[in-house]
Specification:
The protein is α+β, with helices and mostly antiparallel strands and about 140 residues long. The protein has three helices and five strands, in the order αββαβββα. A three-stranded antiparallel sheet has the order 3-4-5, with helices on one face. A two-stranded antiparallel ribbon has the order 1-2. Helix 1 packs across helix 3 and helix 2 packs parallel to helix 3.
């Protein structure tokens, strides 16, 4: 993976995973600010009205990382997250696609029985859960390698 700053990673995941773009939006009494809006919108349709560009932190915030997981799910991706109780700062996330739903066996070790296809599985191990989710999502959509 190329060395990207947290700001660059945040922008990439907002654009490539969430489908957002930056727009200068007027709010309040003539104030303007940079907000994430749905790509192609006029800036009047907010993805989330409190997510201005300086307040959305998917690399450190579980709520923002959760939005990524739900967006990936809406786009047909399954996911798993994990932590290592023996080693500090080791958290992982993987996104994968299969032909069948996992059902009650969502935590089973086998993917093959669910129609998992090689190459449609991307994972990341990072120092925090939100960071692992963000990186794994970017890998899955091909925004980074």
């Amino acid at each position: 993976m190329p060395k990207l700053t947290d700001t660059e990673l945040t922008r990439l995941v907002a654009e490539k995973v969430m489908g957002w773009e930056v727009a200068v939006v007027e709010y309040g009494r003539g104030k303007k600010g940079n907000f994430w809006v749905e790509a192609g919108s006029t800036g009047k349709i907010f993805s989330n009205p409190h997510w201005n560009c300086l307040a959305w932190h998917p690399l450190t915030d579980w709520a923002a990382a959760g939005e990524i997981v739900m967006k990936m799910r809406a786009d047909g991706w399954s996911s798993r997250t994990t932590t290592n109780g023996w080693i500090a700062d080791q958290c992982g996330c993987e996104f994968f696609r299969g032909d069948l739903a996992l059902g009650k066996d969502i935590f089973s070790g086998s993917y093959e029985e669910y129609g998992f296809k090689a190459g449609v599985r991307q994972s990341a191990v990072e120092s925090s859960g939100p960071r692992a989710i963000t990186i794994a999502a970017l890998l899955a959509v091909g925004a980074i390698s």
